[in-house]
Amino acid sequence: MAEQRGAVRRRDTTQTVCAAIRADVVGRVFTPGERLTEEGLAARYRVSRIPVREALRTLESEGFVHSRPYAGTFVAELSESEAEDLLGIRLLMEPFGAERAALRRTPVQLATLELLIAEAREMLDAGSAGGPAGLAELNTRFHQVLAEASGSPTLAALVAQLGYKISWVYSLGHPRRAPESWAEHEGIVQALRDRDPDAARERVAEHIRRAQAAYRLRGKH
Amino acid sequence: MAEQRGAVRRRDTTQTVCAAIRADVVGRVFTPGERLTEEGLAARYRVSRIPVREALRTLESEGFVHSRPYAGTFVAELSESEAEDLLGIRLLMEPFGAERAALRRTPVQLATLELLIAEAREMLDAGSAGGPAGLAELNTRFHQVLAEASGSPTLAALVAQLGYKISWVYSLGHPRRAPESWAEHEGIVQALRDRDPDAARERVAEHIRRAQAAYRLRGKH
DNA sequence: CGGGGGACCATTGCATACAACTATTACGGG
DNA sequence: CCCGTAATAGTTGTATGCAATGGTCCCCCG
């Protein structure tokens, strides 16, 4: 369990460690402002310091940690306004990507999105048997595939980074509006199926505005 | 000269190497698709492989290179549509940032922008004595400071990454519209001075649309 | 002569080891 | 008792070295 947590098959170590640290940051295992020692992380994931260092450089450029030479690496702290801006940026980029995706999506991407919706519906019908974590995972993947369907690797990468950060912010308290959310996803996929860029853009924009509103309500803690 | 190119003061090596490689990628010293060997880069910049590796991880997450385990690192290739999308994304993000900047800019940031404009005007009046590279550098910094003035570190980082990539694309052939460009910059700063978010957003949008148009004209090669 | 398979080599991935710097703490002076 | 300074310890930065893997070239076979 914790023993084998980061036991890598001597391959892809850096990427695995990077994902693990990011997951632990997003999952609030490491609290914002906390100092991360390379040796501590190395021990935690059962690797040496080199993969840890490389993972930290990636996470730094993604904005999850920041480090000063010889001083150490610290988990980033997102201000409230920063969290708000994140949602604003997302509201810009995802509709833009969806517009492109309506024109450029491949059949495989379309089918993947439909598959994700089907899996989500199954989970919802089963009464969240897969757990809310499963739905959140599906949601992340949905938005990820949607971004990739835009045909722009840069845009997809940016959306992915944003998605991680928003998960981080949202982790304070998940708004529970999964059924509505997935219904909206269906509308988005329909627009992609119809190759209707305007509808795709508008539906994604509306989807994100609603998520944003739900977040703001939860934000009053 | 080339001898001392990457001779680092035994500090900040990784960041310096990262910037150097990025500059060489943007400057077309390394051509898209080219394979970069760690040892070759280490020799070029007079450092060991470790800083090179870490720099490459950063550049990978920024999208300038891509690497597969054990296979090597390759300079990324930007398709024409990808270049077009880059400009589209910039057209989304920079006006958004400018809107925020009009409300959040600090006096120091405002003064910095004014300083940059003054320096640019001096160069222009001197008949591009500082060289076009100097103006391009000032342009990059202007947009960088403008993005930072939005008060959102995430947004600033994204704009910075985009800026590098756009410099890369533009390096195929610089559109020479520096005088008009800097006149527009003045209008933008005026909007920030007036704390007028709508004007700031619109002027930046117009500025970028014109740069985009100039690029498209040049693009017909 | 063209295509497939295998061995060699270059290169990457990772761990260990040493040097350099920061932060903390203890000590002495005011 | 507080502040400034210096030594110390802990952590980061970099170099060297070895094991694992992918790419390439050559040989053999069809």
UniProtKB/TrEMBL annotation, chains A, B:
Q: Which domain of life is it from?
A: Bacteria
Q: Where is the HTH gntR-type domain?
A: 11-78
Q: Which InterPro entries match?
A: GntR_C, TF_FadR/GntR_C, Tscrpt_reg_HTH_GntR, WH-like_DNA-bd_sf, WH_DNA-bd_sf
Q: Which SUPFAM superfamilies match?
A: GntR ligand-binding domain-like (SSF48008), Winged helix' DNA-binding domain (SSF46785)
Has the keyword Transcription been applied to this entry?
A: yes
Which keywords label this protein?
Answer: DNA-binding, Transcription, Transcription regulation
Q: What is this protein called?
A: Transcriptional regulator, GntR family
Organism of this sequence: Actinacidiphila rubida
UniProt GO molecular function: DNA binding; DNA-binding transcription factor activity
